[in-house]
Amino acid sequence: MKKSAATPAKTAPILEVSGLRLERGQTVILDDIAWRVARGQHWVILGPNGCGKTSLLRALTGYISPTSGDVSVLGHTYGECDWRDLRLQIGIVTTSLQASIPPAEPAIETVISGKYAQLDLWIKNTRADETAALKLLRFAGIGHLARREWLYLSQGERQRILIARALMANPRLLILDEPCSGLDPVAREHFLAFIEKLARRRACPALVLVTHHVEEITPAITHALVLRAGKIIAQGPLATALTGKTLSASFDSPIRLTRRANRLGLQFTGRGKNSVF
Ligand SMILES: Nc1ncnc2c1ncn2[C@@H]1O[C@H](COP(=O)(O)OP(=O)(O)OP(=O)(O)O)[C@@H](O)[C@H]1O
Predict the structure, then answer these.
(1) How far is the CA of 62 from the centre of ligand 1 (A)?
(2) Residues 6+ apart with CB under 8 A from 62
(3) What is the pTM of this model?
(4) Which of 95, 104, 131, 254 has the maximum number of C-beta atoms within 10 A of its C-beta?
(5) Whose CA is nearest to atom 25 of ligand 1?
(6) What residues does each domain of the chain span?
(7) Ligand 1 pocket, residue 24 CB under 6 Å
(8) Structure confidence by residue, pLDDT tens digits, 159-187
(9) What percent of the chain has pLDDT above 90?
(10) 1-89+172-214+221-234: what fold?
């Protein structure tokens, strides 16, 4: 009988990936990925288009099987326990989820569906679920939208609802896959302030933010994983893993990392091979 992941091992890391390799046909999508997310850490994954970020997320959530290597969540390894239990420990917010939300579904029901890791949920809501969902919507600053249908919500509101939805299952890891895409500059700042508030919450799950934009790395993010062509080129505490040198190697273009008022930025230096100028 397969072991249940419902009772997490107290000392295990939140996530551990070792020797992960993913091949499809002749293509090596991920190669020799070894990565560990410990309790209390919040990570950013950065890298150019096609470097393997989405594939890595899909391997973490059990949606694709690696060619070799292991992925474990809270000490439980895919293949050795029920993957549905493991998946419940990982919340994921991605724009691809948006197409699966029924257009007429009120926000509060979208949030409640997260508790059961289901979309288009057809059950009678309990009072306790409604209370919990409303609390999360209020935390996300959108309590007033609880009864508004998905169809009429803005992109920023939808992203907050999907985060509240993910939190309904009390995940230990929350993956935010390009959560700012489609947001205008002001909406993006408000949204980042919300992420920062979430990260400072006592019961916050470990966050993994996937982005192309260093400006979206808020001060709560502690660690970085930098990818290039399916391989890790740097990982560790933000200050050492995310530098002009590692970004230049990742994006194959000369880049300088700037820091102003606690926010990161990029400058293209205009020198060297593959300069954008
Ligand atoms: N099933 C597959 N078969 C063949 N190649 C694939 C498959 N899935 C992904 N790839 C390739 O693997 C590479 C990594 O894709 P992936 O979507 O993980 O990149 P990404 O870093 O998320 O890119 P982006 O930033 O553009 O979203 C790409 O070159 C892609 O074409």
Answers:
(1) 16
(2) 71, 78, 83, 86, 87
(3) 0.90
(4) 254
(5) 49
(6) 1-89+172-214+221-234, 95-170
(7) yes
(8) 999 999 999 999 999 999 999 988 899 99
(9) 69
(10) Rossmann fold (3.40.50)
